[in-house]
Write a structure and sequence with these properties.
Elements lengths: L2 H25 L4 H17 L5 H14 L1
Helix pairs in contact: 1-2
Length: about 70
């Protein structure tokens, strides 16, 4: 599975889980299990999402190496 596909699947799961949590909140039920699942999905999402600031970090390191 590609990173893009994994990202879309995780986003879909989070959206469904959010709806489920919302319904439990409205009904006044406990949603602790769903909360833990949401937390793990967010962690997986962070790993599936590419770091878009890598070029900035790399350029700062290069500039600091040249200056000092």
């Amino acid at each position: 599975m590609s990173q893009h596909q994994a990202y879309k699947v995780i986003i879909g799961e989070i959206e469904m889980l959010n709806k489920e949590i919302d319904m439990k909140i409205i009904k006044g039920l406990s949603y602790a299990e769903e909360s833990r699942r949401h937390k793990t999905l967010l962690a997986r999402l962070r790993h599936a999402t590419p770091d878009r600031s890598w070029w900035f970090k790399r350029s700062i390191n290069l500039i600091s190496a040249l200056v000092f």
